[in-house]
Amino acid sequence: MAHVLVIGASQGIGLETVRAALAAGHRVRAFARSAHRIALSDPNLERFSGDALNGSDVAAALDGVDAVVQALGVPVRDLLGPVRLFSDATGLLVPAMEKAGVRRLVAVTGFGAGDSRDAISPLQRLPFRLVFGRAYDDKDAQEMRIRRSRLDWTLVRPGVLTGGRATGRYRVLDKPSSWRNGLIARADVAHFLVGQIEDASRIGKAVVLIERALPL
């Protein structure tokens, strides 16, 4: 079992990843500014309060871990202005991991980031850009920083996120010709992320995750 650092652990995919990693028997260091509020009880859980934009916090959180899951998110209200969280946090994380000798990085971005942008259907393209354009421009920069690194990385691009329990019926689309948008539960994304911690088969690759495809 691995010692895993989950960045962005207090809510959303990050919190689901903490749950799934603990259920799989991993030791988890849950990193977030509000880590002390994580309402889980497990002897393998360590709450680590820190800021993903603070280099000292990130360096300290990497001490002794085997792998990192980066699952950052921004509030909807912040989508209306400039977004820099993803690229700025990754700009700190990548060199800190390289310096610490922590090689495995599983990073959540999203469908529409990087080269998956070309797979957005014409009908979805305009509303996607209007709502998420600033965030996804920053996710593009995040992905580029990761790709240029010396890390053993995997980029995970979920579709439209939903609540509820994991179904296990999601699809892993690893070929550009198969990429399309769809719905997927956060808990299913977390299930996939945890599976990648010790799986080397998708190192250096980007995948799209969906359960049910959206109409074009």
Explain briefly what this protein structure is.
With 216 residues, this protein is α/β, with parallel strands linked by helices.
Task: Write a structural description.
The protein has an 8-stranded mixed β-sheet, with helices on both faces. Strands 7-9-11 form a 3-stranded mixed β-sheet. 33% of the residues lie in helices and 23% in strands. Helix 3 runs parallel beside helix 4. It has 5 helices and 11 strands, in the order E-H-E-E-H-E-H-E-H-E-E-E-E-H-E-E. With 216 residues, the protein is of the alpha/beta class. Strand 4, helix 3 and strand 5 form a beta-alpha-beta unit. The protein has a single domain, classed as Rossmann fold. It comes from Methylobacterium isbiliense. InterPro entries: NAD(P)-bd_dom, NAD(P)-bd_dom_sf. This is NAD(P)-binding domain-containing protein.
Describe this protein with a few key phrases:
single chain, 216 residues, alpha/beta, Rossmann fold, eight-stranded mixed sheet, three-stranded mixed sheet, 33% helix, globular
What is the topology?
Blueprint: E1 3-7, H1 12-23, E2 27-32, E3 45-49, H2 55-61, E4 67-70, H3 85-100, E5 104-108, H4 122-147, E6 152-158, E7 160-162, E8 171-173, E9 182-185, H5 186-196, E10 205-210, E11 212-213
Parallel strand pairs: 1-2, 1-4, 2-3, 4-5, 5-6, 6-10, 7-9
Antiparallel strand pairs: 8-10, 9-11
Mean pLDDT: 94
Please give the count of helices: 5
Radius of gyration: 16 Å
Q: Give the topology string: H per helix, E per strand.
A: EHEEHEHEHEEEEHEE
CATH architecture: 3-Layer(aba) Sandwich
Strand order of the largest sheet: 3-2-1-4-5-6-10-8
The number of distinct β-strands equals 11
The tally of domains stands at: 1
Low-confidence stretches: none
Helix percent band: 25-40%
Derived structural class: alpha/beta
Specify the CATH homologous superfamily.
Answer: NAD(P)-binding Rossmann-like Domain
CATH level-3 fold name: Rossmann fold
Q: Major sheet, described briefly?
A: 8 strands, mixed
From the spread of the alpha carbons, the general shape counts as globular
